[in-house]
Amino acid sequence: MKLFDAHCHLQDPRILSKAPQLISSAVASGVSYFAVNGVSEKDWNLVKEMGVKYPSVVPCFGIHPWYVAERSPQWFETLKSLFESTPTAAVGEIGLDKGSKGREIDFSDQVGVFRQQLELAKELNKPASIHCVRAFGDLLETTKSMGPFPAGLILHSYLGSAEMVPEFAKLGAYFSFSGFLMSMSEKKAKKMLKAVPSDRILLETDSPDALPKLESGSLYFVEGDPSLSEEGNSSHDLDSAPNEKPNASGGSGSMKLPKETLNHPANIHTVLEYVAGLLDMKNEELAELSYRNAVRLFSYSGSKLLLERGAADVSGHTQNHSTTHVS
């Protein structure tokens, strides 16, 4: 079973030093690719380096709405030159936010920066990973005025309404689900998921955030997570195999995890299980479907997926040719 983490932040300072182990254990668990999203000029080079170092990392560059005010006067030129030097990259994380953190950032400024990056994604024919908190009406208005987007949009950790799904889908949107989905009522989540076209479903972790919160099921933990060691749980920290306690929701007989607990990228398995359950699908079926969708979306010109597929095709052709020649 192959999985594709459609949105995460393995360059995040909270887990950067652990990235080699996290990637290794997640890959061993069945995760083939990670779309690693930059959030500001400060981490773009880190993301670029990870893309070079790890075959499984798809680098993405963008300014997240929380960091709009920190951008330099040269930010857009820097971003464009990064895409020129990194053809494997996609766009992200970009977006709009009217939540508690987003309210601290001038919204017209957010919209301006978002539109510039979205226009660039369209021009480069690359998918863009979008953050949206309490601004879905604004997002729909903006994307409608600029769309459609043939290369695709990723509505990451989607928590919008079922009613908006067809509108976004018409513009080229894919809907990516993380552990944050568990904060939505099951009834509402199920209704929304059922509205998503099967060829537009993606799965993600948003690691190190969005730790799944379930009453049962095993989770992977980041070794040395300070939020766990403070509780004296260092013996439970694991980064190569799932651990059934402490439990994410603090259900019967388990320990309630601190809010700051880091999310391991291998916890995409928990997201898979949860979403599959709501959709009345088998885990394997949803894994295959979401993987196929992600591969299609991330197979833009210059992408690692296209390059690897091309190499495999050449290798297969050479082997077939060799076999024919020998016989």
In short:
This protein has about 325 residues and is of the alpha/beta class. Helices cover about 40% and strands about 15% of the residues. Residues about 230-255 and about 315-325 have low confidence and may be disordered.
What does this structure look like?
This is TatD related DNase. GO terms for molecular function: hydrolase activity, acting on ester bonds; metal ion binding. Residues 225-260 are annotated as: Disordered. A divalent metal cation 2 binds at residues 131, 156. There is one protein chain. The protein is of the alpha/beta class and 327 residues long. Helix content is 41%, strand content 13%. The protein has eleven helices and eight strands. The protein has helices spanning 19-29, 41-53, 75-85, 107-124, 136-146, 165-170, 186-195, 226-229, 268-278, 283-297, 304-326; strands at residues 3-8, 31-37, 57-61, 90-97, 128-133, 153-155, 173-177, 201-203. Strands 1-2-3-4-5-6-7-8 form an eight-stranded parallel sheet. Helix 9 packs across helix 10 (283-297). The longest helix has 23 residues, at 304-326.
